[in-house]
């Protein structure tokens, strides 16, 4: 069955491996930046969605629902092609970064909201009656618990962000997938190139997972759900 | 009450305004009826590949989940290792790799089936976890009680584990369905003309980027938003 007529040429991949590794760094860079900025926006969005003021609530709800209910690829197209109608022409790098920030912020906002909702409101009353200010309560009582609750979902989101950067290839961004596509088009060794890229993505994902485990051990002293 | 009414009046005015705007811009654009037909065919293909992937993926997910909850360390490690690879490699790369591999093996396979197989495998990887969690959520004492009442192994699964486990994990399954619908957009990399790809082709033909993209975003939104609302509703209802 498997007597196919094909010889693998790994040496072609080996010759350009440094280029692929630097492209992998671009992937990681975009994922990390989109995660950090996304998290900052997500905090405001989650507060906005729980606010009683319609003026804050509506934009937050619209942002979150659009980010969660349309494909990431659509969001990237929107940033790259759609904004052109307003005269805003972004480079592929910025367009992908903006779309990923939009997407991450929407997902992280829901995660954070779940975390805040899981803390009983009686804790706030208890610590206020013990003489803590509202800020102190958030700082010492609520945030440490929320961080434990959302730590694993956030790690997952980080891995999602890394995988999502691969969509950048469709708008011509030269991250790992885009670079691989460019390199393979010179020799048409599609299978070899993409297999190496797949292995790289796998290793990056596992390294992020391992790093987050070590960090959790240091931050929470193993006391995490 | 009064405030509520005002809110809905404002919302409907906004919606009416935007539908009027959309109508005017479609009229003014170079889009023809054939283009819209082309778009609808793309939508049909998106639904077709998503449904296929969800059915096949759920079927295999249930089997793998059952294996995972019943087998020893070695099988477990093997199954979860395989599913882990599917989850940590971008879908785009999986599509291209599988397509290229089929080319190497000289197997003649349509783009639809390449996409459907990979999407199903991807779905199965997520469903497996959900099914395992569902089976584990039924307590051992309940199942032992069922067995000691004289139920067979399969009767235990059919009448005890299935109804109880389904309650626990049905919302998670729905969110997997949602993500598969969204991920089906990626099949376009190997040339399957689903809705986002048809949109892209129409954009390069008519240069109406914003209008087409808003239209396709609206399609995705009206498919996926009601399902996500239903999942939230279900989660609340099933919570004991």
Report on this model:
The complex is a heterodimer of chains A (225) and B (240). Chain A contains nine helices and no strands. Chain A has 225 residues and is mainly α. The model of chain A has no long low-confidence stretch (mean pLDDT 88). Chain B is mainly alpha-helical. Chain B is 85% helix and 0% strand. Chain B has helices at 2-28, 33-70, 73-88, 91-104, 111-137, 140-148, 153-183, 195-206, 209-238.
Sheet with the most strands, sense and barrel status of chain B: none
Shape of chain A: flat
Strand % of chain B is under 5%
Number of strands of chain A: 0
Number of helices of chain A: 9
Q: How much helix, percentage-wise, in residues of chain B? A: over 70%
Structural class of chain A: mainly alpha
User: SSE order of chain B in H/E notation?
Assistant: HHHHHHHHH
Separate helix tally of chain B: 9
Q: What's the alpha carbon Rg of chain B, rounded to whole Å?
A: 23 Å
Task: List the SSEs and their pairings.
The complex is a heterodimer of chains A (225) and B (240).
Chain A: H1 10-15, H2 17-50, H3 54-69, H4 72-80, H5 92-118, H6 121-129, H7 134-164, H8 176-187, H9 190-220
Chain B: H1 2-28, H2 33-70, H3 73-88, H4 91-104, H5 111-137, H6 140-148, H7 153-183, H8 195-206, H9 209-238
Summarize the structure.
The complex is a heterodimer of chains A (225) and B (240). With 225 residues, chain A is mainly alpha-helical. Chain A has 9 helices and no strands.
List keywords for this structure.
heterodimer, A: 225 residues, mainly alpha, MetI-like fold, 9 helices, 0% strand, B: 240 residues
């Amino acid at each position: 069955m498997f007597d196919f007529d094909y010889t693998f040429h790994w040496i072609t991949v080996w010759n350009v491996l440094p280029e692929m590794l630097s492209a992998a760094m671009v992937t990681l860079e975009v994922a990390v930046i989109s995660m950090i900025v996304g998290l900052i926006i997500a905090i405001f969005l989650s507060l906005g969605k729980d606010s009683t003021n319609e003026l804050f609530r509506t934009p937050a709800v619209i942002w979150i629902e659009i980010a969660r209910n349309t494909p990431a690829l659509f969001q990237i197209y929107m940033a790259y092609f759609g904004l052109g109608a307003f005269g805003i022409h972004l480079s592929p790098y910025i367009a992908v970064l903006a779309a990923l920030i939009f997407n991450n912020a929407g997902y992280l906002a829901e995660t954070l909201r779940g975390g805040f909702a899981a803390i009983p409101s009686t804790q706030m009353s208890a610590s206020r009656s013990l003489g803590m200010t509202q800020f102190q309560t958030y700082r010492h009582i609520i945030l440490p618990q929320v961080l434990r609750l959302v730590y694993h979902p956030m790690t997952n989101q980080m891995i999602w962000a890394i995988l999502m950067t691969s969509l950048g290839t469709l708008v011509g961004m030269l991250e790992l997938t885009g670079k691989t596509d460019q390199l393979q088009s010179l020799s048409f060794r599609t299978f070899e190139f993409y297999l190496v890229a797949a292995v790289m993505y796998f290793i990056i994902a596992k390294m992020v997972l391992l790093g987050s485990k070590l960090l959790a051990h240091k931050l929470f002293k193993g006391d995490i759900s | 009450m009064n405030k509520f009414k005002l809110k809905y009046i404002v919302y409907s005015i906004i919606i009416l305004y935007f539908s009027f705007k959309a109508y005017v811009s479609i009229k003014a654009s170079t889009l023809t009826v054939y283009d819209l037909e082309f778009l609808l065919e793309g939508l049909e293909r998106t639904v077709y590949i998503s449904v296929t992937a969800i059915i096949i993926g759920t079927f295999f997910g249930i089997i793998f989940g059952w294996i995972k909850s019943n087998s020893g360390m070695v099988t477990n490690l093997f199954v979860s290792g395989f599913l882990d690879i599917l989850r940590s490699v971008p879908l785009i790369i999986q599509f291209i790799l599988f397509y290229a591999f089929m080319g190497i093996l000289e197997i003649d396979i349509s783009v639809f089936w390449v996409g459907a197989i990979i999407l199903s495998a991807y779905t199965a990887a997520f469903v497996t976890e959900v099914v395992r969690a569902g089976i584990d959520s039924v307590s051992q004492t309940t199942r032992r009680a069922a067995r000691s009442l004289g139920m067979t192994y399969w009767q235990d699964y059919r009448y005890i584990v299935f109804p109880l486990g389904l309650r626990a994990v049905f919302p998670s399954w729905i969110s997997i369905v949602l993500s598969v619908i969204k991920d089906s957009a990626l099949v376009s990399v190997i040339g399957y003309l689903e809705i986002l790809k048809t949109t892209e082709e129409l954009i390069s033909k008519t240069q109406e980027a914003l209008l087409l993209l808003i239209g396709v975003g609206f399609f995705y939104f009206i498919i996926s938003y009601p399902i996500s609302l239903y999942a939230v509703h279900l989660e609340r209802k099933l919570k004991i």
